[in-house]
Each structure stands twice: as structure tokens, then as C-alpha cells.
Amino acid sequence: ELVVSNRSFTSQTTTPDITCIKLSFRLEGGSKRSLSTGIYTLLYFCEAVVVLLTVCGNLLIVISVCHFKQLHTPTNMLILSLAMSDCLVGVFVIPAALTWMIESCWLFSALYRMCFTFMSFFLTTMSIFNVALIAVDRYLALSKPFMYNKTVSVSKMCIVLLSFWILLFFYNIVLQYYIGSFDGPVMCLGNSYFIWSMVDLVLTFVLPCAVIIIFYGLVFFIAKKHATAIRDLNSQTRTQTSKNMSDSMKSERKAAKVLGILVSVFLACLFPYFVYTVLGNVIEIEEKQLQQLLMLVYLNSSINPVIYALFYPWFRRSVKLILTLHIFYTDSTLINVL
């Protein structure tokens, strides 16, 4: 059995320049499950828990940022965009991916397979670019705070994010067309497939990850300088002005730290899959291992709400207000959640 990208295949025909692969969608007639009914029930229960955590957790982030005016900041627009892509992963990608792992085959239609593949590529790419934008945003906020506050607004950030969503949507349609994902159950992988795969690897992983690593390296270097400056301010003077400046710098450092944790977890989930994909050119790719690494990428969408809940007090307060239905009160958008 051969596996290419995140799709499973069963039969293969090779010519000097082209490899044609037929996709397998269902179990062969009469095949029996290797696990007991109780184990399958437990596995599907765990799948439901993961899907609910991903969808509901990210939906709470979306509602919080959209509803409370105090949270309408450029940085939170990036968090909103990331939560939206994570929520869509929970709706369109994780259920099918987990079912595929549990059943060891694709049980759905060819049309749904195409939609699954497209959404998987598109939403994963959007998440990577969201995290890269967060890294750039934190760098500008810490290195050039006056310029950042003057030039970066919520409306401008929304325009940038909308542009990325539209561009990446059409880019992934073109990508799926050229790599043959829309060709039905038979894909012929010629030179164009491997060229587009390498182009996609560079554009949607290597470059964004380079941006993330470089800018977050700069962020922590600046944060270290700020920590030194805060200590000097506190030791030399106790005026109100110095206290306000110290509090502002501490707030920015804390935001950088929390988002740094989010970025680190994101890269930890992403790197194994892409390393395995690159090594797939020289070693045999096994379906089970590839599925597990893909699930690690998808499960990052479930982890993000947990990170927000642990490190963002405003998220915990917002969730409490949402679950107690206080958001339906008059002027609830003005409630202090910070």
C-alpha cells in the first residue's frame, strides 16, 4: 500500500515519468473489524469528545472576541482568525480523519474525500499563516510600540486577515487542481505533482516557519531587554509615570510569553509531519504513521483553547459570562473582562 500526502491508495501503475494511483474508499465486502464492539464504542466516544472540545472551545474564543469591545484589539483579531480556522478544522477535518484512523480505510464518498483534502490543506495553511502574523504582530508591538499603536488598527488588521483568507483559498484550489485531487478515484502523479508539492512545502511551511522562528527569537530578545529596563526603572525611581511604563512593558512581555507558548506548541505539532513528508522522498511512507502525524497537526486545533484557558484570565471571565448567558444582558458588550 502506498501513501502520498494525506491520502491512502491501494493500486499503482508506473511509467517512466508518471505514477497512477487508485484510491481506496471502503473496506472490502465481508471484512471484519479486528477490535471488539466495546473498543470501537470507546474510540468513537473519544472522537466525539475531541470534536466537541475543538469546536466548542474555539467557538467560545470567537464569541468572546466578537462580543466584548475590550477585546477588539489587532492582536485579538489574529487570535480570532486562528480560532475560526481551528473551529472549521473541528467541523470538517477531525471527524473524518479520526474515523479514517479508527476504520483503517476511507468510508465516505469520493466527493467528500475531495472536500476533506481541500479543507485539510486550506485550513492548515491558514493556521500556519495566522501564527506567522501573530509573531510579526508581537515583534512590532514590542520593538516599535508608538508606531504600532499609531498605524496598526483593528480595521486594518481585519483587511489583512481577509486578504489572506481569500488568497489562500484560491491558492489551495489551484494547488489541488494541479496535484490531481479533483481527478476522482485515480490520480496520476507526474513531474508536475512533485514540483507543486515542493513549491507548496516552501510557500506554506518553510517560509512561514522561518518568519515565526526569526521574529519570535527577536521578540524574546526584546522581552529580555525590557525585563532589564523594568528592573532599572524600579530601582531608580518610583514615580507614577515610571510605574505606568513598567506596567505597560510587563503587559506586553506577558502577552509575548503566552503567545510564545502557543507558537511553540503549534510548531511542535507541525514539525514531525512535515519532516516525515520531506523524508518520504527517500524512505517508504507508512499509512499508520502518516495518519498519526496528521492527527497531531489537527489536534493542535484542540489544544489552543486549553492554552487560552490556562494563561488568559480574560478568556476565563468571558467563558463564565457566556455560559451564564450574561452576554444577552443590555450593554453586555461593555462588561470589563480584562
TrEMBL record:
Keyword field contains Signal: no
SMART domains: 7TM_GPCR_Srsx (SM01381)
Bilayer-crossing regions: 42-66, 78-98, 110-136, 157-179, 194-223, 255-275, 295-315
Residue ranges that the Swiss-Prot or TrEMBL entry lists as coiled coil: none
InterPro entries assigned to the protein according to its UniProt record, in alphabetical order: GPCR_Rhodpsn (IPR000276), GPCR_Rhodpsn_7TM (IPR017452), TAAR (IPR050569)
Transmembrane helix found in the keyword field: yes
Keywords from the UniProt entry: Cell membrane, G-protein coupled receptor, Membrane, Receptor, Transducer, Transmembrane, Transmembrane helix
Domain G-protein coupled receptors family 1 profile positions: 57-308
Topology within the bilayer: Multi-pass membrane protein
One MF term in the entry's GO annotations: trace-amine receptor activity
Primary localisation category: membrane
GO annotations of cellular component type: plasma membrane
Pfam short name (any one): 7tm_1
SUPFAM superfamilies registered for this protein in UniProt: Family A G protein-coupled receptor-like
Locations listed in the record: Cell membrane
Top-level lineage group: Eukaryota
Family of this protein: Belongs to the G-protein coupled receptor 1 family.
Name of the protein described by the UniProt record: G-protein coupled receptors family 1 profile domain-containing protein
The organism of origin for this protein: Electrophorus electricus
Organism phylogeny: Eukaryota, Metazoa, Chordata, Craniata, Vertebrata
